[in-house]
Amino acid sequence: MANKWISHVKKTMKTMKSKGTYKKGDGLKKVIMEAKKSYKKHGGAEVEEEVAPMEEVGGKRHRKTQRRRRHR
């Protein structure tokens, strides 16, 4: 299944071309800005609210990052 956002952008470009508001070479930014106005986010998988939430165990785990030393 194709990405819904990409499908919407392609559909918007097609309608803009048919209306004459988009010409080749205008750039994708113009199409994306137009598609952004009409796009409705689709929800993912539905979660049942009746099921009791699992207990949270601990907090976030942070990975140690290595810092590079500068050589002089």
Question: What does it look like?
Answer:
- With 72 residues, the protein is mainly α.
- The chain has a domain at 4-38.
- It is 38% helix and 0% strand.
- It contains two helices and no strands.
- It has helices at 4-19, 28-38.
- The longest helix is centred in the first third of the chain and has 16 residues, at 4-19.
- The protein is elongated.
- The chain starts with a helix and ends in a 34-residue tail after the last helix.
- The model has no long low-confidence stretch (mean pLDDT 78).
Distinct helical segment count: 2
Could you report the average pLDDT, rounded to the nearest whole number? 78
What summary fits the major beta sheet? Answer: none
Order of helices and strands: HH
Which radius of gyration do the C-alpha atoms yield? 23 Å
**Poorly predicted ranges (pLDDT <50, ≥5 residues)?**
none
Large-scale geometry: elongated
Strand content: under 5%
Instruction: Report the count of strand segments.
Output: 0
Q: Give the terminus-to-terminus CA distance.
A: 54 Å
Pairing-aware structural class of the strands and helices? mainly alpha
Helix content: 25-40%
Write a brief caption for the model:
With 72 residues, the protein is mainly α. The chain has helices at residues 4-19, 28-38.
